[in-house]
Amino acid sequence: MAEDKMYPMTEEGKEKLQAELEDLKTVQRPKVIERIKIARSYGDLSENSEYESAKDEQSMLETRISTVERMIQYAQIIDNEGTDKDEISVGKKVTFQEGDDDPEEYTIVGAAEADPMAGKISNDSPIAKGLLGHRVGENVTFPTPGGDMTVKVLAVD
Predict the structure, then answer these.
(1) What is the SS3 assignment for 69?
(2) Which one is predicted more confidently, 150 or 80?
(3) Residue 57 confidence (pLDDT) above 90
């Protein structure tokens, strides 16, 4: 695993990760430890499904803690000072339209904070990769898993 991988993100994204890490360590971890303690009290661990379940949860929790710590450690805060205000870049909100479809609006963020349901797409996604560097008014065609997509850039904020 490349430990020098950078995780581009907004300042808001980093703050959310820090809050998640705090919750994982101070709330979730103690709950899991308590579940393990209670399950141990049931006796024979070899046939104790509560114990196995709690240990599995602990493993997933510790993996997530490690992942979030690494993302925070290697966070690269996005700074759009050097880009034109109408140029699409990571950290900006872009509105585009495909054909006669309704306009779509997404904020392009680093993969660590992507949440398509909240309108935040990863800079590694096909749509974001296709849009990055383009400007308001341009028609952009880019490949997607479903075939080429052509959109008109309506706004960049």
Answers:
(1) helix
(2) 150
(3) yes
Long-range contacts of 130-134 (CB under 8 A, 24+ apart): 131/88, 131/94, 131/96, 132/88, 132/89, 132/90, 132/108, 133/87, 133/88, 133/89, 134/87, 134/88
Q: For the full predicted model, state whether its pTM sits above 0.85.
A: no
Q: Dihedral sign, CA of 7, 12, 15, 16?
A: negative
Residue pair 92/107 in contact (Cβ under 8 Å)? The answer is: yes
For the range 83-87, what are the long-range contacts, defined as Cβ-Cβ under 8 Å and sequence gap of 24 or more? 84/135, 85/156, 86/135, 86/136, 86/156, 87/133, 87/134, 87/135, 87/156
pLDDT bucket at 144, cuts 50 / 70 / 90: confident
- Does residue 82 register a pLDDT over 80? no
User: Residue 37: CA atoms inside 13 Å, Cβ hemisphere, count?
Assistant: 6
User: Cα–Cα distance between 20 and 37 in angstroms, integer?
Assistant: 24
pLDDT of residue 36: 92
> What is the number of other CB atoms lying within 10 angstroms of the CB of residue 89?
19
> 3 and 69 in contact (C-beta within 8 Å)?
no
